[in-house]
Amino acid sequence: MSAIRLLVLGAVRQHGRAHGYQVRNDLEYWGAHEWSTAKPGSIYHALKQMAKQGLLHAHEVAPSTAGGPPRTEYEITERGTEEYLRLLREALTSYDQKMDMKSAAIGFMVDLPRAEAVALLKERIRRIEEWRGAVTEHYVPEQGPEQLGHIGEIMNLWIHTADAEAAWTHGLIGRIEGGSYTFAGEGEPFVGILADDEENPYATDEPHPQDAH
Fold first, then answer.
1. Does the pLDDT of residue 121 top 90, yes or no?
2. Per-residue pLDDT tens for 170-206?
């Protein structure tokens, strides 16, 4: 599952209505162009495709007094919100996700109620432990990777990665249960988006034909 749909839907949802360049700017501000496929072309393509699929509603906005073509602003639909929350919940619970999905899920987890976020993260740990149990039926970490030749280093990497993620997730759950962050229904959450006139220190400044649309 690609993270681009989750990232774009989440970015539009945070704004209420946003044009393509705002979405691109936000994702670059979050560093998503470094850890995901959220490049300008894929962002604009995702916006248009999800508008065709009924997940976003496209509003054509009159051109500015300075001239130029009209811009399209996107607004998430009810169906789009359902898809966004489905993707978010799946990304929070699935251990076998790529880093882009994991990162996107953590970035948007506060859109869920606190108790639900904790429950989903606990399910994530359960799946990690289930996976670890299946792997260690054939590989005993305590005996070291040499038992399988140099190929055992692959298993060793998998086990260490899973253990580290489980430990980190336990820590995250503890912080959430301890009152960290503002979740859905608790008031105004932290929203890491830029004001229209605010400079983006992480912008790639890579021009794209769709930036003006």
1. yes
2. 999 999 999 999 999 998 877 676 666 666 655 665 6
Phi/psi for 74 (5° steps) reads -110, 140
Distance CA 111, CA 53 (A): 23
CA distance linking residue 85 with residue 77, whole number of Å: 12
Q: Which two tokens stand for residue 73?
A: 């602003």
- Short-list 32, 37, 22, CA closest to 75: 22
Q: What are phi and psi of 60, to 5 degrees?
A: -85, 125
H/E segment holding residue 35: helix 32-35
d(CA 167, CA 124): 12
Non-local (6+) Cβ contacts of 184 within 8 A are 110, 111, 112, 113, 114
Question: Looking at residue 135, what is its pLDDT?
Answer: 78
User: What token pair was written down for 200?
Assistant: 């983006």
Q: pTM for the full model?
A: 0.80
